[in-house]
Specification:
Helix content is 9%, strand content 52%. The chain has a single domain, classed as Lipovitellin-phosvitin complex, beta-sheet shell regions, CATH 2.30.230. The chain is mainly beta.
Length: 306
C-alpha cells in the first residue's frame, strides 16, 4: 500500500499543471461556404484586454486496490496591455494576472485561497502570490498570433508550445473559407526514462466552423504525431490533447472566447492494474476592453465591459 501511495503521487507529478484570432465585415446571416475570410488580431497602442479564465480538472489514479483523486479549480483575471505596435502590425504586450481564486481537494483534504484577500496562501499554493498583481513581462505578437521576444517567467512543467497557446491561438497565414483548416506544429519533451527525455511531435489543427454576425467560430483539436506505445509516456501526454472551440471577432480582431475540454484515460501507465484518468475544462472569455482614442491633441481611454 505504501508503494501504491508513492506511485500515485509520482503519477500526479508527471502531469502538467495546466492544460496546464479581421478583415471582411459579415452581415447578419451566415457566410457562404466559398467566401474567404482573413483572420487577424488587430491591436493598437493603449489597448487593454481583460479575460476571465475558469479551469477545472479531476485526476483519478488507480494502483491495484489503492485509488487517489485530486481536484483543482481556478478563476482568474488575465490582462494584456498593448505597449506598442510596429509597422508590420506586431504588438508588444505587457502580461499581468490581476487576481486568482484557487481551490484544490486531495483525497478529502481541501485547500482554498483568494489572492484578493489578506490571508497568506496555504502551502499547497505557496509562491503563487508573487505572480499576481504586477506585470509578469512582455511578449510580441504578430497579427496571425506568432510570438517573439518573450520575457515571461517559466512555469513548472511549461513546454515551448505552451506560451504560444496561452497568449493567443495561431491564425492562418492566408484567407480561409468555412470548412477549411490550418495547422500548427510544435514539440514537447517527456521522460522516456528517469534520466532520459524524449521529444514528441504535436500538432494543433484548426477548422473554420462558421462565420456569423462578424464572428468566426473555430474548432481546434490537438494531435500527437509521434508514435507512442508506452503507457507511461501516454500518461505524460494525457492533458496535452484538449479539443474545443474558439470565437474571434473578425472586425475588431479580438479573441472573444476559448472553450476547451479533455476526457481521457490511460491503462497501465505504471504497470499492470494501474490507470490514470483526467477530466478537465477551460473557459476563457473577454470580459472588458479599453482602447486609447486620439482626438485632436488629446488622448482618452474608452472602456467597454462585456
Amino acid at each position: 500500500m505504501r508503494y501504491a501511495s508513492r506511485t500515485i503521487v509520482a503519477a500526479l507529478l508527471l502531469i502538467p499543471g495546466a492544460f496546464s484570432l479581421a478583415a471582411v465585415a459579415a452581415e447578419n446571416e451566415p457566410a457562404s461556404a466559398s467566401e474567404k475570410h482573413l483572420l487577424r488580431y488587430k491591436l493598437k497602442p493603449g489597448d487593454v484586454l481583460e479575460y476571465a479564465v475558469e479551469k477545472d480538472s479531476t485526476i483519478d489514479v488507480q494502483v491495484g486496490d489503492a485509488a487517489g483523486t485530486v481536484r483543482h479549480s481556478s478563476n482568474s483575471g488575465k490582462q494584456y496591455r498593448v505597449l506598442s505596435v510596429d509597422g508590420s502590425g506586431r504588438a508588444e504586450l505587457e502580461v499581468q494576472i490581476k487576481f486568482v481564486v484557487l481551490k484544490a481537494e486531495n483525497n478529502g483534504q481541501k485547500f482554498e485561497w483568494d489572492s484578493r484577500s489578506e490571508e497568506p496562501p496555504p502551502d499547497a499554493f505557496k509562491g503563487v502570490q508573487e505572480t499576481i498583481g504586477s506585470p509578469l513581462g512582455t511578449v510580441k505578437v504578430s497579427p496571425s498570433g506568432e510570438i517573439a521576444d518573450l520575457s515571461l517567467p517559466e512555469r513548472t512543467g511549461e513546454q515551448p508550445g505552451d506560451t504560444q497557446w496561452e497568449v493567443f491561438p495561431m491564425l492562418p497565414q492566408e484567407p480561409v473559407a468555412v470548412g477549411e483548416t490550418w495547422k500548427e506544429a510544435f514539440e514537447i519533451q517527456i521522460q522516456a526514462t528517469p534520466t532520459l527525455k524524449k521529444g514528441v511531435k504535436m500538432q494543433r489543427m484548426y477548422t473554420l466552423k462558421s462565420v456569423e454576425d462578424g464572428r468566426a467560430t473555430i474548432d481546434v483539436r490537438t494531435l500527437v504525431l509521434s508514435p507512442i506505445r508506452d503507457p507511461m509516456e501516454e500518461g505524460q501526454l494525457i492533458q496535452r490533447t484538449p479539443h474545443g472551440t474558439l470565437v474571434l471577432d473578425i472586425n475588431e480582431g479580438r479573441l472573444l472566447e476559448r472553450d476547451l475540454k479533455i476526457d481521457s484515460r490511460v491503462v497501465g501507465f505504471q504497470g499492470p492494474q494501474t490507470s490514470l484518468g483526467v477530466v478537465g475544462t477551460r473557459r476563457e472569455s473577454l470580459s472588458s476592453t479599453e482602447s486609447a482614442v486620439v482626438s485632436g491633441d488629446s488622448k482618452t481611454q474608452q472602456r467597454q465591459r462585456r
